[in-house]
Every structure is written in C-alpha cells, then in structure tokens.
Amino acid sequence: MNKKELSRLKRHNRIRLRMHGTKTKPRLVVKRSLNNLSATVVNDVENKVIFSLSTVNKEFKQEVKNSGNVKAAEIFGQFFSRKAKEKGITKIIFDRAGYLYHGRIKTFAESLRKGGMEF
C-alpha cells in the first residue's frame, strides 16, 4: 500500500468516527478505482449492507463502455439513484471514503442529487 492510499484510509477513518447510517437514513459509501466506481448503501446500526451497485454491473455496462471517466460517473449516479428509489431509499448520508470531493466523486454526488436523493 502506497503513501497516498494510506492517507486516504486515515481520512476515511476520521470521517467514519462522526458518520453513522441508520435504517431511515443509511450511509452511502463510494469506492473509486482507476477503471470503475462502486457504491454501497449501509445500515450501521444493524451492520448490514442494504444494497450495492458497481459500474461492472451488466445493466450499466450496456449503457456505457468506458466506466472510468466523469461522464460514466454521472450516468452511474442517475442509474444508482433510480435503483435506490426502487428499494425505497431517498435520504442518505454521503460517505466519500476519504477521496477528495472533485472529479468523479463530485459528479457522482451531483447526479445523485439530480436523481432525487437527499443528503
């Protein structure tokens, strides 16, 4: 693990001390890699994953070929918010997992808001 990843994990641990998802307002965790994004909705009270999606998903891959860019993050945000509404989730706590709020993370968050998610 390199220095940059260790710094991100330290930031994430600091953030997690103050952030807890509940059944009515679960925590949405975003994981970023070079080629993909994944998002997981977690209920921290019961320690359960409510649901999870990634840009590797077959339905999403039909819409977008390259999933490691800002345009794909925007489409993934709309896709994720649509699926979350089907599960009955509209209010969340956005956990950026220590990543800086710019680029794909910022675009994903803004498209979630456009899709009707509240945070």
Secondary structure: elements and pairs:
Blueprint (H helix, E strand, L loop, with lengths): L2 H16 L8 E6 L4 E7 L4 E7 L3 H6 L6 H17 L6 E3 L8 H11 L5
Parallel strand pairs: 1-4
Antiparallel strand pairs: 1-2, 2-3
Helix pairs in contact: 3-4
Key structural traits:
119 residues, 4-stranded mixed sheet, 4 helices
Shape: globular
> First CA to last CA: what distance?
32 Å
Order of helices and strands: HEEEHHEH
Computed CA radius of gyration, to the nearest angstrom:
14 Å
| Whole-number total of structural domains | 1
In short:
This protein has helices spanning 3-18, 58-63, 70-86, 104-114; strands spanning 27-32, 37-43, 48-54, 93-95.
What features would you describe in this structure?
- With 119 residues, the chain is α+β, with helices and mostly antiparallel strands.
- It has a single domain, classed as Nucleotidyltransferase, domain 5 (2-Layer Sandwich), CATH 3.30.420.100.
- Helices cover 42% and strands 19% of the residues.
- The chain is built from 4 helices and 4 strands; from the N terminus they run H-E-E-E-H-H-E-H.
- Strands 3-2-1-4 form a 4-stranded mixed beta sheet, with helices on one face.
- Helix 3 packs parallel to helix 4 (104-114).
- The longest helix has 17 residues, at 70-86.
- It starts with a helix and ends in a 5-residue tail after the last helix.
